[in-house]
Design a protein that fits this description.
heterodimer, A: alpha+beta, eight-stranded mixed β-sheet, five-stranded antiparallel β-sheet, 14 helices, 19 strands, elongated, B: five-stranded antiparallel β-sheet, 18 helices
Amino acid sequence: MFDETFDVIIVGSGYAGLSAAIEAKQSGCSVLVIDKMRVPGGNSAISGGLIAVANSPLQETEGIVDSPSMLANDMLKAGQGLNHPDLVQTLAEKSKEAFSWLHDYLGVVFSESLVHEGGHSVPRIYSSINCSGSAIVQAMLVKCRELAIPIRLQCALTNIMLDENGRVGGVTVITDYIFPQKNSGTTKSIRALNGVVLASGGFGQDVEFRMANNPKLDSGFETTNHAGTTAETLVSALRVGATPIHLSWIQMVPCTSRDEKGWGVSSMFSLLVGFPHGIMINATTGKRFVNELADRLSRSQQMSAAGCDPMLIVGEEAAKQYPNLAICLKRKAVKRYESIEAMAFDHSINLPALSATIHKYNQSIDKGVDRECGKPFGMHRNFKIAPPYYLVRLRPKIHYCNGGIQINTSAQVLDINKHQPIRGFYAAGEVVGGIHGACRIGGMAICDCIVFGRIAGRNVAKEHQLTAVLQ
Amino acid sequence: MKELLLIDKTVASGNYLILLSIDYQNFAVCGDIAPKIGDNMLPYEASFNCSMYKEVFETTSDLVLITDHNGIITRTNRMASQIFPDESTIGAPFWIILALECSNLNEALELFSTQDPTQAAKQKNYTCESTHSVYAINLVTLGDNDRIRKGFLLILNDITCLVMHRVALEKQVKERALALSRSQKMLQTVFQGVGKGVILVDEDMEVIDSNQKACEIFGIHPQNIIGAHICSLCNDSDKKAIMDMMNNIIENQILSSEVTGLYFDKSCFPAVFTVSVIVVEGDKLWIVIAEDVSEQKCMELQLKNEKIMTEEVNITLRNVLKNIQGEQQILADKLTYKIANDLLPVLKKIRSATSDEARNGYIDFMGELLASLTKGTEAEIDFALHKLSKTEMKICKFILAGFSSKEICATMNLAFDTVQTHRKNIRKKLGLAGSANISLHGYLINRKI
């Protein structure tokens, strides 16, 4: 009946899938990772490579007081309390462990300064040295190669198979699949003795599915996601009784540029230096309109309300903190201006208002308080906005699906009828819902993928022994 | 005496300027002013000007409609009355006559004050149903300012020609755009479907575009390969070769080089980079065609091994042939010897036998001798050779064929030391150990193996 047999099958080769694969393999299981695309890594490989860590070594050196409970509070606050507190707590408690695993075990190199992303009460985000998630995915892939974990590309999940006891016992897949041609390839069934880990990511590119959940998000919206982020794997989980939650909470990210496709190179510029050290203005009024370090949801909402593509302006001293500035300028995603007049002229910004706004902001830095928009100062070095200026034309894009299928703190997928774990079925990463609630704050996705990916990997490896004991 | 106002309005009506003369209470155009004002005498100059205005009013090719301050049409010029007959036009609001999308004066005025260029162009045109001519409508407020409106002047300028021209142009643009998108699609299909990785590299040696196959070969996400340095796709040891190739190549030249490709998980694979360069608007653009040649390399190795095997078989066959020839020679020699030494003397004795008994005896003996000719010809195999193992035997064959130890190592894929050990064991088994003056080759050449 089955074409092949493995102990564990992992669907998806991003952060969550690879973390689970490494853990399961090290627990002695034979592991197969499948991915429908031609290259491994999925969205993880094109992500920003930011990971939020509570109580990190760098926070200690910089004298920043933080704790897992502070992180959990920030998550719950931004998530508007929709987040499941047990999952939030697990994640917050294990963020440091996830970081050490990346840093010490996989040898991922991070930059030596912490990022303060919107919605976090303190700077607590590490950034990978090349400002991209590709470095982290690469380290994971190198480890998978060392551990001889096969990663089968162009292999798409079509069905999750239940055995006669209602336990997940395998999958049907299409091998030699050519995305997005549904009739390509050959169907095969693969047995999973221990179980299946679903780590197939979100559905940001699936216009029909996202519109079913939020009709406003039609095809007119751009997304930072790669083309393969579609909902069919999530749907196959629902077919075997997984519980869908928070599906309509689809996050728009405020840091993306209208001058680039997708995530591009300038998003990290905006995220790392633009929002922390610059101002976001409405070009028509020349004025600021939101705390640049508010959570992603509030910023994106305010930006949409502004009714035009807002501009992010930062001074040179801050801009140069971003290592890939030259690439941004080369691709014209970030523009440099010698004078405020040139900048205002080029983008039809109200010049007197802009001058006043910059002046006022610089004064606020001196005072240490931002009475205008409530941006937090003083946690780290603040840069004034002085010429030459660097400008990004922002446009929020669909970025992350907060919703997905429900898991418990052991990463077991919960059955919608019995509210009990579906045996042999685990999930981690963006395909999971309920961790971030209404709004995911920056640096939490990678953290989430690694924490629950590893939990899923370790637990699916134990599944066999568990079955033996139960029988 | 009424004050006479001369209002200059620049109106986009072909190339001329229409000057309108208005007083505070009444208004009329040019020549009409004099009779309407009636009792009050107009200055001479004004009536002179009025007649000039009247001429312009009546002779202009534009349609001119004049309304009161409520927008009710009071007068039309000759051109206008051809399109808008007086009986149905005079006394009607202009927005109805001109079929504007509005229902009162304020809405109509709003239409003309809108800033949105796409809206404005659409709504400020009038298309005559009978002649199909298209007119651009210009609205001029009469009076010294907006608060004291005397009325409105509507000038309809025939833009049929322009509109037709634009339609033709639009059609042309559409066709060109379609052709362009078709050829772009074709180019894209070729780019994607070529079956090899195609990478475009700019003067910073950075990838600016690549097809899916290239991403697949290197395992790098399409978004990540853009901006990557071309050398980052290969082992460090190939950097120089690639840079040399790219720096030295000229247009219309194609260079290619075998390199060690680097997959995203840092595993290596044999690759071939084929490079060409074009100059686009003064900037160099390199086209690198990358190919994963793992399979070819694998096949090459297989072929090489097969060739070695065939050579070995050849050597063996050659030796077998040599042995058979040797055996034949020995057999022939033996026969000659036996014939000369045994058979011929017995024949002689038969011939010279004196008695039948003796002759019969010799004939019997002759029979035995003849029978023995076919016996005892088995090769005198050196039994020592039987002691040799299969590998040792193989090595002996190579030695016999004149191979050096080094060559044996290479063909049998053995270490030099291993071959040397085998040689030592062979000598021992053949009882040559200690007799350094006898070479293995010399010994074996005299043996049948």
